[in-house]
Amino acid sequence: MKNIKLGCLFFVLTMTLVSCAGKKPVVVQNTTTTEKVITETVHDTVFKIEKDSSSYNALLECINGKVRLKEVTQAEPGRILKPPKVQITDNILQVDCDAKAQELFATWKSTYIKENKQEIKEVPVITNVLTSWQKFQIECFWPLVVILLLVVIWNLIKYKFKSSI
């Protein structure tokens, strides 16, 4: 009977030691790619300037066959144009009208940044799937340890009381 108990004890200890194995990590692969697209656009424009005019009215007279400026009745400048300069020399009329220089063309750049982010997730790779026998061993481990401890304690108590009598 003692050999059967020792054999059962040896069998239980062997099964518990064999069933304990290290757990390997589950392999999961995640890939993230980021793509930046930079679009740069050059814009230009033309400013439309309304028409401008200046006017000059004067009375002329003729003295000894030569034309002369008698009186200026009206001289109006425009928004940009100055009043005209009028000269009469040897019966020749000269009108000069000056304007300020203008720059009417403008350009600018606009930059648009578009960022595409793609995330690829793969299904986890399951390595080391437990068999039904391994699951059974894991479930039975703690009850067997408790039973084993109870048997050892019982045998120690029994042995102690036998030796004291």
TrEMBL record:
Keyword Membrane among UniProt keywords: yes
Record keywords: Membrane, Signal, Transmembrane, Transmembrane helix
Signal peptide start-end: 1-21
Superkingdom to which the source organism belongs: Bacteria
Transmembrane segments: 141-157
The protein's name in its UniProt record: Lipoprotein
